[in-house]
Amino acid sequence: KAREAILRELLETQKKVQRLKGDSEFELIGIDEIKMIRRYWRADGDLEDRIPKLYQEIIGQTLEWEYDDRPILREDQVSLLKQLCEEKNVSLVLIKKLIRIQQEYYSLKLRKGVIQDLEETMSQDWLHL
Predict the structure, then answer these.
(1) 47, 97, 104, 107 from 124: Cα distances, Å
(2) How many other β-carbons are positioned within 10 Å of the β-carbon of residue 72?
(3) CA–CA distance, 79 with 129 (Å, rounded to integer)
(4) In the predicted model, is pLDDT for residue 6 greater than 80?
(5) pTM higher than 0.70
(6) 57-76 pLDDT, tens per residue?
(7) At CA 127, angle to CA 121 and CA 129, rounded to 5?
(8) What is the CA radius of gyration of the chain?
(9) CB count, 10 Å around CB of 101?
(10) CA separation for the pair 81, 66 (Å, rounded)
(11) How far out from the chain centre does Cα 85 lie?
(12) 123: how many CB neighbours lie within 10 A of its CB?
């Protein structure tokens, strides 16, 4: 939530500066940087893929996002996942990370490393709970 608030504030500030300067091309953060942040957030378990919606809401433009980077789950599926995690007392963050790992290896013929990545994530998250 904090990082989303920071990005929101940055984009809103960019929009204000663009209006004040009369320069719609002025950027505090570039599109490539926003796309990189999106990759980091998604790797960190952002199943909702909030950045495209946030960017559209604040800047008023739809960027061309990578096709392979589309949301893993729909909003209704994320809501259901949240509900189930609460009911079963399971870490939603952990589940998101595990889903993301599985998605990264999904299309590979040789899924070497998937078990190791899953185990490492489980170990890291359980140490922090």
Answers:
(1) 19, 11, 19, 25
(2) 19
(3) 22
(4) yes
(5) no
(6) 999 988 887 755 556 777 78
(7) 100
(8) 17
(9) 20
(10) 25
(11) 19
(12) 10
Q: How many angstroms separate the CA atoms of 27 and 47, rounded? A: 27
Please write the tens of the pLDDT for every residue from 116-129.
877 887 787 555 55
Amino acid at 60: G
State residue 85 phi and psi, 5-degree precision.
-65, -40
**Tokens standing for 5?**
């608030």
User: How is the chain classified by DSSP, letter by letter?
Assistant: -HHHHHHHHHHHHHHHHHHHHT-TT--SS-HHHHHHHHHHHHHTT-TT-HHHHHHHHHH-------GGGS-SS-HHHHHHHHHHHHHHT--HHHHHHHHHHHHHHTT-SS-TTHHHHHHHHHHHHHHH-
Confidence of residue 9 (pLDDT cuts 50, 70, 90): very high
Tokens 């739809």, residue located: 62
